[in-house]
C-alpha cells in the first residue's frame, strides 16, 4: 500500500481536483465570476505573491503611477483567479465544448504543412494552458513540451493528464535530460516552448527585459538553429465574461534564429514586451522574473 496516497497533502489535492471536476459543469460566465472572486481573495491573502507582482510592475512599467500600478496588480489577480478556476474546463470538459470556447486566429495549421520541425514560442500569459489545448484541438501534428514537475505527486499527475488528455501530446519534466525532447522533435513533433521564465544562468544570459537585465534562456535559439526549426509565436488570452479564450498564431519569424543566441534572446524579449503592453493585466507578474541578479545587484524580491 502506498502510504503517501493518504497523506494530508495528497488527500487535499484529491479534494481540490474533485472540486474542479464538479466545476466543469457550470457555464463559463459563472466560472469567470467565481474566478474573479477567487483572484480578489488571493490578492488579499497572498501577500508574498502580491509583493512580487508589485515589484515586477514597478520595474517594468515605471510610467504608471502608484495608483495605476496597484489597480493593475488587483486586476491581474482577478485574471489569475480565472485562470485557476477555468482549468476545470481545460482538464475535464468535453472536446466539443472546448472547440466552441477556444477562438483561434492566424495560421494554426502551419506545423501540419511544414516540412521542417516547428517551435511555438508561447510566453507566460495566464491563458497559457489554453494555447496548449488549441495546438491539440485544431492541428494534427503531435505536440511535445516541457513542464516543471510539482512537489505534490497527485497534482503533478493531474497536471500531466490534463495537458495531454487528447492523446496527441507528451510532456517532459524540466528537471530531466533534454534528450527525450530532442528525440521527439526529430520524430516530427512540434515543440510548445515556454521561453520566458527565470531558471538561473544555466544555458542563459542576462538580457534586457523592459530595460533591466533578466536571466533569459538561450536554449530556444540554439535548439531552433541546431534542428533547423520554423519558429512561430503564439499568444493566448482570456476573454471577458463567458466569451471563452483567444489564441493568436502569429506569422513565423523569418530571421530568427541567427548565429547569435544572445541577440536572439534580446529580440524575443522585445517581442514579449510588446505583447505585455498590449494586455498587461494578463501577464504572469507573480513569477519572480528577476530572481537571478547580476553580480553585485541587490535582490528585487
Summary keywords:
globular; two-stranded antiparallel sheet; alpha/beta; 301 residues; 7-stranded mixed sheet; single chain; 47% helix
Walkthrough of the structure:
By secondary structure, the protein is α/β, with parallel strands linked by helices. The protein has one domain (3-282). 47% of the residues lie in helices and 16% in strands. The protein has twelve helices and nine strands. The strands form two sheets. The chain has a seven-stranded mixed β-sheet with strand order 1-9-8-2-5-3-4, with helices on both faces. α2 packs across α4 (66-85) and α3 packs across α4 (66-85). The radius of gyration is 19 Å and the shape is globular. The model has no long low-confidence stretch (mean pLDDT 94).
Amino acid at each position: 500500500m502506498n502510504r503517501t496516497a493518504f497523506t494530508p497533502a495528497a488527500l487535499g489535492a484529491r479534494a481540490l481536483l474533485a472540486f474542479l471536476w464538479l466545476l466543469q459543469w457550470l457555464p463559463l460566465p459563472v466560472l469567470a465570476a467565481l474566478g474573479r472572486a477567487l483572484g480578489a481573495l488571493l490578492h488579499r491573502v497572498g501577500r508574498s505573491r502580491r509583493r512580487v507582482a508589485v515589484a515586477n510592475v514597478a520595474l517594468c512599467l515605471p510610467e504608471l503611477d502608484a495608483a495605476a500600478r496597484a489597480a493593475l496588480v488587483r486586476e491581474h489577480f482577478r485574471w489569475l483567479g480565472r485562470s485557476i478556476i477555468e482549468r476545470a474546463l481545460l482538464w475535464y470538459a468535453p472536446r466539443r465544448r472546448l472547440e466552441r470556447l477556444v477562438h483561434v486566429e492566424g495560421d494554426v495549421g502551419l506545423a501540419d504543412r511544414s516540412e521542417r520541425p516547428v517551435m511555438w514560442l508561447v510566453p507566460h500569459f495566464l491563458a497559457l494552458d489554453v494555447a496548449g489545448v488549441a495546438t491539440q484541438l485544431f492541428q494534427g501534428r503531435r505536440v511535445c513540451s516541457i513542464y516543471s514537475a510539482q512537489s505534490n505527486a497527485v497534482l503533478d499527475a493531474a497536471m500531466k493528464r490534463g495537458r495531454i488528455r487528447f492523446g496527441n501530446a507528451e510532456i517532459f519534466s524540466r528537471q530531466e535530460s533534454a534528450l527525450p525532447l530532442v528525440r521527439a522533435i526529430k520524430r516530427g513533433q512540434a515543440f510548445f516552448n515556454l521561453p520566458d521564465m527565470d531558471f538561473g544562468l544555466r544555458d542563459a544570459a542576462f538580457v534586457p527585459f523592459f530595460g533591466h537585465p533578466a536571466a533569459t534562456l538561450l536554449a530556444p535559439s540554439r535548439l531552433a538553429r541546431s534542428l533547423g526549426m520554423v519558429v512561430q509565436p503564439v499568444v493566448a488570452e482570456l476573454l471577458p465574461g463567458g466569451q471563452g479564450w483567444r489564441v493568436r498564431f502569429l506569422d513565423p519569424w523569418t530571421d530568427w534564429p541567427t548565429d547569435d543566441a544572445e541577440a536572439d534572446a534580446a529580440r524575443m524579449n522585445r517581442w514579449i514586451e510588446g505583447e505585455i503592453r498590449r494586455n498587461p493585466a494578463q501577464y504572469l507578474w507573480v513569477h519572480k522574473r528577476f530572481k537571478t541578479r547580476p553580480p553585485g545587484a541587490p535582490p528585487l524580491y
